[in-house]
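Hey, can you fold this one?
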Amino acid sequence: MTRPRPDLERLLADLDQLATFSEPDTPGCTRRFPSAAYRAGRDWLQQRFADAGLAPAIDAAGNLVGRRAGRLPLPPILIGSHSDTVYGGGRFDGALGVLAALEVVRALDDAGIALDHPVWVVDFLAEEANDFGVSCVGSRGLTAGLPAEWLAARAHGGDVAAALRAMGGDPGALAAPLLAPGALHAALEVHIEQGPVLEAGGMRLGAVSGIVAIRRATLTLRGRPDHAGTAPMALRHDALAAAAECVLAAEQAARDEPGSVATVGRLTVAPNQSNVVPGSVELFLEVRSLDADQIERIWQRVMAQTRAAAAQRGVSLGIGTQTEAAATRPPAWLLELVEDACRAVDPATQRLVSGAGHDMMHLAQVTAAAMIFVPCRDGRSHCPDEYATPEDCGRGARALLEAVLRLDAHGVA
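Sure. Predicted structure:
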């Protein structure tokens, strides 16, 4: 048997081409759900899947799935990631995982290798947090279904259901999960680390031992807009001042709980005029930790302080769409298998925890799921400066291929 090996030049060319699909007049790579640039990039991906001999289709949750047949009637091995980005994102977050997965099946074909298990290459829909206040839409739909309040969440004059239909999905089919437990053999994802641990330690590959839990919500503070020159300080109902206390409360609460992080990364202020007291503020709060109890403590503390700050100023507080993803850890056998596959490529491989959320944390609800990390320069991600070296991209694809080969042999008599 010819030992399969990913074609690095082909992988890099695909990364370069996918990066050309970006929303006009935005920095870096911007492919937000459900923009025209995102749809165009997925059309290109679908053609690349077809060119590789996969059978591409869009499922009801809007995931692009390319299927490679196996020799036996066994559950598929799922590999992939996402092709959407944040505003002003980079070329590697998500894209590397989708295209490395595609390169794995092409390498198997080049070497003439038929696996016992089918392989699914997946581009999950809308992994990134977006203006609708939801994230991991495709992987959640696949493994848990989507609740009605998610589908009704609105932004830019439309709702999630309409955006999902625009991406080829069927919101009416998502009252229940699309995948049942046991339907997959396992799921794997290659991703840039999005942090500095690998680079700081001189490591080229990491086997992910856990993914933190994430709780997010949209908070709306409503006060009263007044003239900034004539409204006395004691009579103001300043929504932004109350929001500022929420931001500081989140920062301090997380600092008091080592191992956690809390962030308010977006504020929408109205009327947003220099000479008007802010009348309303919408903000997005998120808390992350491997410890669910820690998240709950932080959340309750921030909510209590925000309510007090709002009441002191005569400002109302509303809580909109709230989402929660549980912390996940791969089963011991799969973590060991992935670590061994990575060490076949780089003996210095180490285990590490992911502080970022990923589609695999949702796949873990129905199957054994694991991740492989490659370093990114200065640990930076979600910005135009995001960068992974060609060599590290190649190592990630090789490690994924090694893991797929091991998974194919695992549990087969």
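The chain has two domains: 8-211+327-409, 214-325. Let me know if you want another pass with a different chain boundary.
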